[in-house]
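Researcher: Structure for this, please.
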Amino acid sequence: MLFKSLPLSLELGLGIVFVLVYRELYNRARDRRPPGPRGLPILGNILQIRKLPWVKFANWAQTYGPVFRLNIAGQDMIILNNNKTAADLLDRRSVMYSDRPRNIVARMLTGDMVFTFAQVGSQWRRMRRAAHDALGPQVAKNYHPLQEREAVVLVEQMLQAPEQFDDHIKRASASLVMAIIYGTPIMESDDRRVDEIQKHVARTLASLAPGAFLVEYLPFMEKLPRWMSGWRRYAEHWYKVDSAMLTGFFYDTKTRKESGDDGPSVAATLLDAMGSDGLPMLDAAWLSAALYAAGAETSSGQMEWFMMAMLLHPEAQKIAQRQIDEVVGRGRMPTFADYDQLPYVRAVVKEVLRWRPVLPLGIPHRLSQDDWYEGHYIPKDSVVISNVWGLNHDPEVYGDDADFFRPERHLNDNGDLSVPLRDTKDEGHFAYGFGKRICIGRHVANRSLFIEAAAVLWSFNIEPVKDADGSPVIPEPRPFREDSLALRPAPFPCNITPRSNDVAAIVAHTKHIVVDN
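Model: Predicted structure, token format:
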């Protein structure tokens, strides 16, 4: 009513003043965005980070500070390079920083039910709560028998064909995660479930790749009719196919449960909750598959890095073996009953996760509203990445030897586990992420890596192969595989030999107890 009595010219003048003031404030805010390297017109910095971006980011942090900005074809990307900035934003401001980048095709392809990548909403919260109920610290011990079983089978296979240790690790990881999620391990090398889920995962990740679908850059294409939208028909088709497949896997667990032939598993926990406030069947089936996909690739990658670490650092291997021999002896294999008495082995696990995180950039977050941090403006919808590699190799946190593998950094003077670093959620590293997006299965993952590492160290010596002149061939720890979803070492040879003549017999006896029975 105030402007109704004003002359039209004055109304227009006030409107122009308002627009100019808004633009000035907006431009001032944009000028106070975090600093960053200059890029190319239109493309921005995208061509500068195509190879080993986590290493590039850590180097740029020396110039631009712990928070810097990149322009990725017009998209603001904020890189966090030390633990304080990552914890300040992703933990202590998690309400604003917990969303994921919007991806039109991936959401349609999965029904937005792959909760790892799903955007924040009521469905995501229900899935997160259900995943926590099935994998949280209060239930992690339920999976100990499954973990001990796969550790024994892994050692048995390494005894039979040590040169194929990489394949054995992948099989053991897939089998263990399959057993934890669905209640049944992999009994055959060509288990159809693994192949079908891997294809599903590949489709999902392909849809997330930059440039995969034009609609991500031209959102008006969402409004085009279906017959003009090949991406829509593709996503709808595979959502229908994958939903049927994943529901079938889930129903297999339901059938076994109803017949009394089941043990602890994520699917069984989700089934138990369905009668109250649990997830619907379809949501539970998709959640189960998402948890399998997240666990299988990362756990096998970390075990491969464990093998590399033991090969490169024989002194750490010998210390761990000496502790295992003192606690366990040579007459049986390690079990979870030995867990509290093997702090050095647990420190080895922590150091593997710190030294070589399999997700060196974590998974991108998205800022849901404008924010200011230490004088810098961070605009809404910015993609925010925690450089886990940089955080885990920060010399201000881990010392001048942060790039080196040293389990002792996680121990106190008495040889016990030390008080973990602040903001690491008792982990001693940042490999599992932050805030509401922290890895829910980390307690199970830690135990799995522990029992497999302990079993391998009890059973074998891991040593370099020798060349024609008899000199040891020491692999480089930096070449990485390019055919993997996670950061994994390039293939490397090593000699894996039993530590005594009794190993094979004790492994066979243990397998008879924990597997065959």
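Researcher: Any notable elements?
Model: Strands lie at 67-72, 75-80, 365-366, 371-373, 376-378, 383-386, 460-463, 465-466, 472-473, 495-498. The mean pLDDT is 90.
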